[in-house]
Amino acid sequence: MTTAVKRIGVLTSGGDAPGMNAAVRAVVRTAAGMGIECVGIRRGYHGLISGDFVTLTGNDVSHILSEGGTMLYTARCEEFLTVEGRKKAVSMCKLLGIEAVVAIGGDGTFRGALELSRMGVPVVGIPATIDNDVGCSNYTIGFDTACNTAIECIDKLRDTMQSHERCSVVEVMGRHAGFLALYVGIAVGATAVLIPERELDFERDVVEPIRNARLKGNTHFMIVVAEGVGSAVDIGRQIHETIGLDPRVTVLGHIQRGGTPSARDRETASRMGYAAVKSLAEGNFNTVIGTHMGDLKALPIEEALQMTKHVQMDRYEVLEAMHVR
Ligand code: ADP
Questions:
Q1: pLDDT tens across 69-79, in order?
Q2: What proportion of the chain, given as a percentage, has pLDDT over 70?
Q3: Is pTM, for the whole model, over 0.70?
């Protein structure tokens, strides 16, 4: 089979997400099937600069499909933000015969990949972040698993909150976006969900939902707060000061990044990894593989980075409709 590249690198960068391993596996196995040699680059762009490479065969990625985290490790790399750092990375690629790089991560990772492509190393990006905040793709690897993890934790919290007739304030991740919070909030039947995309009106968004729930006979309340809104501890304090409840605050934190990837994340990661290598093999360089209405598309990376995606605010209507008794 004739392919546009004979040796490629694969790296994971930025925040980790369950399913990154599945994507690495798909890249390595697809490449192997096409006769393309695949090199794992450790610790994101750090490894590209320092030459922290390991040759990967199909066998080397056995048993990682079901594992959370990333076998290649991930990191944030300040040096890659500098031209000097990127020059070192390009030299390393040349020295070790890496003809193209598959970069698995979020928008930051793709901005780095774009710079790399401008310096002559072809790239392709695969969106993986639990925040789902990549504009060019409806879905990002890791989101589903993180939602399920958060839901499982909140269900457990609900059991004890119900027994004690308490108010619970739970902070979930999402960086500057509210995808995770709103999705999880609907899935757990939250009393209220606070996200950064909706300017906070404490009376409307917190006090009224609790009051209405109480009037309908509820004795426990679940408030889901996206980390982008601010501290759940502050929200809890404000609830105490305004309506006298004594909320228990839980910050779910990094637990949301771990765990065995869900079926959706494994399947999406496998398809994206396959599409990324196919794109490089066909000489379709400098793209990001995104999902659009369930299908995968390779979009030019510059265009992909300019795209924006918004939380569907009509989901609030669903949330509120579930409060009717
Ligand atoms: P994510 O990929 O999850 O959005 P970050 O925003 O932390 O994560 O980006 C990951 C890494 O990508 C950064 O540590 C840096 O090495 C690289 N990067 C981000 N933005 C740029 C940029 N504008 N130019 C070059 N490299 C970048």
A1: 999 999 999 99
A2: 100
A3: yes
Give pLDDT tens digits for 94-140.
999 999 999 999 999 999 999 999 999 999 999 999 999 999 999 99
Q: For ligand 1, say whether the CB of 131 is within 6 Å of any of its atoms.
A: no
Radius of gyration of the chain (CA): 22
Catalytic residue among 131, 133, 205, 265: 131
Length of the chain measured in residues:
325
Residue keyed to tokens 């960086």: 175
Choice from 88, 109, 306 to test ligand 1 binding pocket (greatest atom count within 8 A of CB)? 109
| CA 59 to chain CA mean position, Å | 27
The preferred substitution site among 43, 111, 129 for testing ligand 1, maximizing ligand atoms within 8 Å of CB, is: 111
The DSSP letter of residue 260 is P
Of the candidates 3, 67, 21, 37, which has an alpha carbon nearest to the alpha carbon of residue 270? 21
Average pLDDT for the chain = 97
The reply to whether 16 belongs to the active site is no
> Which atom of ligand 1 approaches the CA of 105 most closely?
2
Calpha distance 73→12 (Å, rounded): 7
Please check whether residue 31 is in contact with residue 58, taking contact to mean a CB–CB distance below 8 angstroms: no
Per the structure block, which two tokens stand in for 152? 């499982």
Distance, C-alpha 242 to centroid of its chain: 35
- The pLDDT tens digits for 132-182 are 999 999 999 999 999 999 999 999 999 999 898 899 999 999 999 999 999
Does residue 109 have its Cβ closer than 6 Å to ligand 1? yes
CA angle 248, 171, 127 (to 5 degrees): 160
Other beta carbons within 10 angstroms of residue 14's beta carbon come to 22
d(CA 114, ligand 1 centre) in Å: 10
pLDDT of residue 12: 98
